[in-house]
Design a protein that fits this description.
Layout lengths: L20 E7 L6 H12 L3 H14 L1 E8 H17 L5 E6 L2
Helix pairs in contact: 1-2, 1-3
The structure holds phenylalanine amide.
Length: about 100
């Protein structure tokens, strides 16, 4: 066996890929009661009443509001959970998701 020590010229630097986050977006509508939207935000996103109220009002005034960002699966299941909570109570409440830049 050779005594010559062979080492690579370059050492690979481990690259850690951060998963892309997806935003959950609350869409305004003319029918879902404000208190209902606030309650759904508190329940699904574990927000205080104060935080939930502010996000609800931002969507109400601007048409939509980013609620939070998660990995894709979590974002999609939270959007579905929120939308279904509205549907089960006869409201057209809608949450969508969108990948972050
Ligand atoms: N615009 C609704 C209302 O005035 C409240 C609402 C806010 C609905 C945010 C959906 C999203 N009752």
């Amino acid at each position: 066996m050779s005594d010559i020590d062979v080492k690579p010229d370059t050492i690979a630097k481990p690259k850690i890929e951060q998963p892309r986050l997806h935003k959950v977006i609350l869409i305004n509508d003319d029918y879902t009661p404000r208190e209902f939207v606030t309650a759904v935000l508190m329940m699904v996103f574990h927000m205080s009443e104060d935080q939930a109220y502010r996000i609800m009002m931002t969507a109400h005034q601007r048409g939509a509001c980013v609620v939070a960002a998660f990995t894709r699966d979590i974002a999609e299941s939270k959007a579905t959970e929120g939308t279904n909570a509205g549907r089960q109570n006869g409201h057209p409440l809608e949450f969508t998701t969108e990948p972050e830049e």
